[in-house]
Amino acid sequence: MRSRVQLAQAGRIRLVERLYRPGDLDGAALVFTALGDPHATAAVADEARRLGVWLNAADDPAHCSFILPAVVRRGPLTVAVASGGATPALTRALREHLETALGPEWGALAELAAEARRELRASGRAADGDTWKRALASDVRALVAERRLDDARRELRARLAMPV
Description:
By secondary structure, this protein is mostly helical. The chain has three domains: 4-63, no CATH class; 70-101, Double Stranded RNA Binding Domain (2-Layer Sandwich); 105-159, no CATH class. The protein has helices spanning 4-9, 38-51, 88-101, 105-122, 129-135, 138-145, 149-159, and strands at residues 30-33, 54-57, 70-74, 77-81. The strands form two sheets. The chain has a two-stranded parallel sheet with strand order 1-2. The two termini are 42 Å apart.
């Protein structure tokens, strides 16, 4: 992940490292703060609300108009975890756990499932939740983890009652 200084140097963000002053949010659409001063954060939040600016106050979740979840991506699969700003350290720990628990096979499985879903829809058919649960069971995930994608695809299609 690029640091805030690197993002600023690349012109991706405007980084202002000084005390907040009224008017700082003029022209902004999105603001992140970590001021450590509840009075200053409240003033930023008031200005943000008045101007319709989205605000994430990292050290004061009550003043946030949005939160940022911790995200783990595996191909088209995205898993997001948030604590509502209550405990970012726990959120980070859970994200780190998920990064190791969700191996690359989950991305490949998501791609196979998306392929099967597109084909089902194209044929005017659908599968219910229980059918998908059986189709994506651990033995199919194991085939994907073993890189036996053709076998996993065949098994997935059979469980979804699709032509092989």
